[in-house]
Amino acid sequence: MFLGRYAYTVDEKGRLTIPARFREALTGDVVITRGLDRCLTVYPAEVWQELAAKVNALPITDPRGRSLRRLLFAEAESVKLDRHGRVLLSEWLRKYAELTPSAGAIIVGLDRFLEIWNPTRWEAENAHQIAMMEEDPALWETLHL
Amino acid sequence: MFLGRYAYTVDEKGRLTIPARFREALTGDVVITRGLDRCLTVYPAEVWQELAAKVNALPITDPRGRSLRRLLFAEAESVKLDRHGRVLLSEWLRKYAELTPSAGAIIVGLDRFLEIWNPTRWEAENAHQIAMMEEDPALWETLHL
DNA sequence: ATGCTTGTGGGTAAAAGTGGGGTGAAATGG
DNA sequence: CCATTTCACCCCACTTTTACCCACAAGCAT
Predict the structure, then answer these.
(1) What CATH number did the domain enclosing B42 receive?
(2) Count of domains in chain B?
(3) CB distance A109–B60 less than 8 Å?
(4) Chain B neighbours among A 4-33 (CB < 8 Å)?
(5) Fewer CB within 10 Å: C terminus or N terminus of chain B?
(6) Could you tell me which chain A residue has the CA closest to the CA of B36?
(7) Could you tell me the pTM of the whole model?
(8) A 44-103 residues with CB < 8 A to B
(9) What confidence tier does A136 reach under pLDDT thresholds 50, 70, 90?
(10) Across residues B131-136, what is the average pLDDT?
């Protein structure tokens, strides 16, 4: 269960530390790929398998299915954490999510997977989220206990 | 079943004592997140699971689903009580709910979960509740209990 | 009164975060 | 096919933060 929002640095080599409390669930292979909204997504192997299966089930005749396939699979990387719990992000992925040493990175726990954000982009997204909820309070209904 | 209102202090390290009578129901993981009206909410693990399951059911391709997911999970923290029944609140959550060592905190039992309030905000909210009830009793009819 | 439980504060040892250097393997070019 | 270079991986070292432990103080009940 990944929860919370953490600020970390990206070093000159393109390495990013994963929060210590998440590492236990990321011992094996980890898949990093492009996410929607210009962030990166990080999946434990099992969760990735599930997601891949769902995408593979989409008919190849659906243009949206083809796009989603390319978005997820084309730039995906299977990596392992190093001894200090860091992952090496390819230059391509770093560029996609605008991750630089000076800007740093925000790691967000989303229950079953993680997202990696450029901090200023995350702030903007956050403001956007709040605005959307205020505009459309009915969305909160989903949360009724 | 959480009931009652209790006053506690927040120490310099950001720790907050949970009332002793509540601890029995909070032995495992506890999830703390921001609530509406600038308070924090505290959920036992089982109650949180219910919430999380509902949000996870939303597809990632729906922009509103993504926003809701990020709102709920990103600002939540999974914590354990320490040996003395205290939780450590992140700086971010403390700032959101205006919790400082000098102000202290009010813990409110709300049956299935708890709320944590800045004392003066709680008083204002309390007065607001009563005023609303007295001014326009008809408002409450819609709840038809 | 006197134990016991609860609330509060602080100190310390361990772990986490960050950066840099060396080594071997793969890639590139002649 | 060989020489050179680049890059990823592993190791080490330093700094900061976290979490655990203990000690004291203040009720409450016996």
Answers:
(1) 3.40.1550.20
(2) 1
(3) no
(4) 4-5
(5) C
(6) A140
(7) 0.89
(8) 68
(9) confident
(10) 88
